[in-house]
Amino acid sequence: LRLNILAEAFGLATGMYFNNANSSTKGIVVFYARGTVNFDLVSSPSNLEYLRSSTDLIGGVVSWENPRENAIKARKEDLAATWRRVRLKLLALKRIGALHNFDAEKYDKSQRKNGALAEAIAAHEEKVGLKSQIVGASIRLASFVEEKSSKTVSKMVHGGRQSPPPRLARNQVIFALMGCFLSLFTLSGINELIKDGSDNDLSILLGPLGALVTCHYGLTSAPASQPRNSVLSIIFTSTLAQASTEIPTDILPVWVRMPLVASIGIACTLAMGLAHPPAGAVAIIFAKGDRRWHDMGLLLFAYVEAIFFAMVFINMHESKTFPMYWGVRNPREWFCPKSEKSTN
Fold this sequence. Notes:
344 residues, single chain, disordered C terminus, mainly alpha, 2 strands, two-stranded antiparallel ribbon
C-alpha cells in the first residue's frame, strides 16, 4: 500500500529488502523513478543487479551504526570497570598497610575525570573519519601535483616532438634582406627629415618597425603579418597605453602599469582576432610614460608606409602575395548582400 501511494506521488516506486545476519538489522530500501521512464530499461537484469547491490551497500551502512555505538559503549564500560578494580586493589593495599599515601577521595575525583576522558575518546573516535578524509584529500592533492609536475617537466624536456622548420632558400634570404633593408632605410630617412624639420623634437619610434618588417618578409602569410592585424592592434594598444599614463603614479605605479597595460592590450587583441607581436612591445613603450600622443601618430604613419612598401616589393616576387587578406567586406556587398546577389 505504501509503495502504491509513493508511486502515485513520484511516478514509479519499488522496494528491496535487506537483512544483515551479523547485526540482525532488517529493512527496505525504496527507489523512485519518473512515470515517463522506460520501464523495460529500468527492469533490465543489469539495472536490477545494480539496485540489488545498492540495497546491500545502504543496508551495510545502516547495519554499521548500531555495532559502532555498542563498541564505543563497551569501551567506556571496560574502562570504568578497570578503574573500579584498580581502586579496590589500592584500598586493599592501604588496609594492609602496604600503601600509606592513597586518598580515596582524590581517587574518586580522578575517576570522574576518567569519565570525561572516556567521552573525549569517544569524540576522538568520531573525528577519525574526518581526519581520514583530510588525509585522503591531501594524498590526492599531492598525487595530482606530482602528476602535473612530471607532465610539465616532460613537455619542457621533450617539447612537441616536432622537427624545426627548414631553412629558407638562398634566393628567399636575399629577397628578405633586400626588403628589410630598403623598408627600414626608407623609414630611417623619413625619420631624419622629421627630426631636422622639428629641431629633434619629433621622431619615429623605429623599434617596433624592425619587428614589423620581420613579419612582412619572414612570415609573409602569417595572420600576425597582415595589415588588418598590424594597424588595428597598434592603434588599440598604443591608445590604451598612452591613456593609462593619465592615471597618477601614486595610484598606479609605472612598474605596475607597464605589465598590466601590456597584458590587457595583448589579451584584447587576441580576443578580437588581431594578434600582432609588435603591439605588445608598443604597449610597454607607451605605458612607460615618456611618449606623447603625436608619437603614436608618427608610429601609425610609419606603419602605413612600411605596409605600403611591403605590398609593392613583395608582390613583385612571382611566387609571393601580400596581403593574404584585408579582413573587410567587399564594398559591393555593403549595398547588395550575397543572398540578394544569388537570387538575382
